[in-house]
Amino acid sequence: MKVEIWSDVMCPFCYIGKNNFEKALEKLPFKDEIEIEWKSFQLDPSLNPDETKTTFEYFREKKGFPQAQAEQMIEQVSQMGKTAGIDFNFNKAIITNTFSAHKLLHLAKKYKKANEMEEALFIAHFIEGKNVGNADTLLDIAGSLGIDIDEAQKVLTSEEFNDEVKQDFSEARSHGISGVPFFILNGKYSVSGAQPADFFAGALQQTYDETVSPLKNLSVEGNSCDTDGCSISQ
Predict the structure, then answer these.
(1) DSSP-H helix ranges across 65-178
(2) Is the link from the previous residue into 29 a cis peptide, with omega within 30 of 0?
(3) b or e along 85-124 (b: 16 or more beta carbons within 10 Å of the residue's beta carbon)?
(4) Which residues pair with 7 in a beta bridge?
């Protein structure tokens, strides 16, 4: 069973959604049968890759929120994070263009470490206050996951994986995805937003029952024909 997840590194609800989704997986007996594919999404592709902003600067300059409103929103998200086991540090978080981080995510897929990369990028951005648009930061993250540094540097300084990242963006548009996190469960159901763990567990169970688990026969034995002929039940 496949689960595709569209996410952006600087989206706090994507981090909350990831934690809640993983808590849900731990409750399911078929968790080892689930293949997770992380997909790229950019909340603000217009950001200059060579510039950074604080969270408050971004809300004020890009979103037009007054300081008091920004502080209230950030406090609400921080409390949601605590419920999900995340101690957000918005005072240190650096807002920047995340395209390079998404390229590194696609490189991590090659090493089957996309989930670890996604987690490492969230920690770097939201907890440690690192610039996830900076090449040195991204190379350090790649190295910490056992990914070849020279290969990672080549990816970051070339157009390698550009098309793959853009393909994820295109798929998001084709599915009508305008916000993240966004989950597609085995091509049958979609879930948007950072839902509670119990909701994810229920959605995964329903999808598994309908698309993966063996058919359940709801009928008693009835009249039928097979390769040996026909029979009539008494």
Answers:
(1) 67-83, 99-110, 114-122, 135-144, 149-156, 162-174
(2) no
(3) ebebebeebbbbbbbbbbbbbbbbeeeebbbbbbbbbbeb
(4) 40
Contact 215, 35 (CB under 8 A): no
- pLDDT at position 234 is 57
Both structure tokens of 169: 């963006």
Radius of gyration of the chain (CA): 22
- Are the C-beta atoms of residues 97 and 45 closer than 8 Å to each other? yes
Q: Who's near 222: CB < 8 A, 6+ residues apart?
A: 233
8 C-beta neighbours (distance < 10 Å), count: 20
* Percentage of the chain modeled with pLDDT above 90: 85
Q: Extract the tokens encoding 51.
A: 């510039």
Query: Cα(103)–Cα(135) distance, rounded to whole angstroms?
Result: 11
Residue 200's nearest CA partner among 2, 12, 23 is: 23
Digit-coded pLDDT (tens) for 178-206: 999 999 999 999 999 999 999 999 999 99
Within the chain, what is the greatest distance between any pair of CA atoms?
79
